[in-house]
Amino acid sequence: MRTIILGGGFAGLSALKTNPDALLIDQKSYFTLTHRLVDVIKTGDPKLAKIPYHKVLVARVRNVDFRKKVVITDKGEFQYDKLIIALGYSQKIFPFTEKVEDIQDSLELRNKLLRAKSVTVLGGGNLGVELAGIIKEMDPLKEVYLIEVQDRLLPFMSKESSTYAYELLTGLGVKVLLKNKVEKIEKNLVVTNDHEIRTDLIISSVGFKGSPMISEIGLTNINGRMIVDDYLKSADYDDVYGAGDCATTKKFIPMSAQVAVQAGRRAMLNALGEDEKFRFNQLAIVVRIGGIYFGDFHGKFVKGELAELAEKVGIFRAIRLVMP
């Protein structure tokens, strides 16, 4: 039986680790540590977020013929018996804003940040909070706004984490605007329900969705995420599975590296013949501001060495997925 995996992120590599005989196809020759993209922005060193693959077919997927069970790429066509789709996430693109999806985005954003005197970050989730902190670290004199529509930062984390993030960022001089809904974006202008901000650079860290390819190949989806059942099987085809940020059940699966790793393994095991429901366990969510690590571990607020250890364990596990 031939199994093909599309996408070499956390979910795809976890699936390959579970079944090394599978064929993994990715358009890049390296694995991206997405949570290290802010470090690339800060330093300009792409190696901080890049780990070379050792067993991946580097090719661009053009289409999938689900009836004939064929993946069509720029390097040829490949027949499969089972297909695992793990194409990751993308960001919704708004006019006049910058995004941070990959290493190239990070390098381009760094160059623009070096020239900007004022920056506005949209979205107070993990990425937005870390971006605001990194930008202030790069230049403490730079004017930085962080806009969040809800009444606290990191709204999906504990209130202790939200409060701590607010204190750290405002201590660095970031102007945090809570309960501010963006109503209009123009070049060098952000208008909210409470403020009108003139700014040199606008960065979006909101609007995460699945890979655009999910819609392009005709799979049923919600917000670009293919719909799967409790066994991670596609709602459209019995021999197709989805894992990671590009897939969700109707009940919702969180978009995170930890969950993606678990989903990749379960999707592969089920593709190989097991029939077990996917149950995820998100042990830790760690954020870093100004070199200080903090977050939620088993649902409880932690900071300092324990939080840093949890984050480094996550990186170590990611590297192990890529290494032979």
UniProtKB/TrEMBL annotation:
What Pfam families does its record include? Answer: Pyr_redox_2 (PF07992)
The reply on keyword RNA-binding is: no
Q: Which UniProt keywords apply?
A: FAD, Flavoprotein, Oxidoreductase
Any one of the GO CC terms = cytoplasm
Q: Identify this protein by name.
A: Pyridine nucleotide-disulfide oxidoreductase
| Domain FAD/NAD(P)-binding per the UniProt entry, residue ranges | 2-264
Family under the similarity heading: Belongs to the FAD-dependent oxidoreductase family.
Query: What is the organism of origin for this protein?
Result: Stygiolobus azoricus
Is this entry keyworded Flavoprotein? yes
The molecular function terms of the Gene Ontology recorded here are: electron-transferring-flavoprotein dehydrogenase activity; flavin adenine dinucleotide binding
Q: Which domain of life is it from?
A: Archaea
